[in-house]
# Entry
Amino acid sequence: MRLKDCHNFEDFRKLAKKKLPSPIFHYIDGGADDEVTLNRNTSSFNDYDLVPSVLNDVSNIDMSTTVLGEKIDFPLFPAATAMHRLYHHEGERASAKAVEKMSTIFGTSTMGTVSIEEIAKVNKGPKLFQLYIHKDRGLTDNLLERCKELGFSSMCLTVDTVVAGNRERDRRTGFTTPPKLTLGSLLSFALHPGWTINNLTHEKFKLANIIHMTQKGTSIDKSVMDYINEQFDPAMNWKDAEYCVKKWNGPFALKGVMSVEDAKKAIDIGCTAVMISNHGGRQLDGSRAPFDQLAEIVDAVGDKIEVILDGGVRRGTHVLKALSLGAKACSFGKGYLFALAAGGQKGVEKILENMKAEINRDMKLMGCKNVGELNRSKLIYRK
# Structure
């Protein structure tokens, strides 16, 4: 299989599996505990059927939307995810360049492996930074100030990771950051020489945004679960979130909101958006899927705050269903990380091109000229 043969999520996943050592593939692919929530994130979309309208002039389709203060060409953007250099030696550089070409928002993480300074040089489009609050609060201020100086357009605070979820695949494969050879993983690394050679011959793995303030996760072999439990602050609360909102003083999303009550609190502290997310099913297994919670949250707060759906999106029709229930836009993570592993920058470009084409085609088939025409009348719940 080659990149040109990748037409959907599963194709990119298969190619990524061929290219990545087992511990790294399963770090992307896996979820928490029994992975019930991971699977429900996507299957939840099947509970609703789309209802198309016919005989509408759909010769010109406008897929654009405005979210987080930015107009983007289509209502989907890659979620901010960590450690892209695990998947491809160019890391976030490749992802950022690809996303700029597609005229949507690029998200990068506190735990990125390419610095925000370099991201600002290679991507001149809208950029979102994903903030984690560490026990060392100096890191928080430093990151907020640097992002502001670099012209990042929006900020999101991830609030569902005060401790790490029980990711049993990572325990079985011995996944660490940076990756290390063990007796258990040696064969997998040997069977993926392309990845192994690139990892050994390119720059040293590092958490580029925080390396000047902590060596954790860079010079010491740690599982991601250990890093989160040692470094992220479980004492984080609403006052901390409000502090970040005020210090940023711009478009600000709270990521990991799953209840109406928390969405209302996000409004109270000044957030401009909430990202309905369960961290890709990687934290609390048995929790609700974002799509299952979408309508309730939109009905309660959708006229006061932007609602972004994050989780389980694999098809253009998933985006249309989310927008029909009231989401302003969607973000996705696993799909573009598989694409990054499959083909670097070209891989990310291809999956975004595929998704944009699906959204365009599906809107025409729905008889919708613009995203504003996607509403509850376009959906029926499958009882």
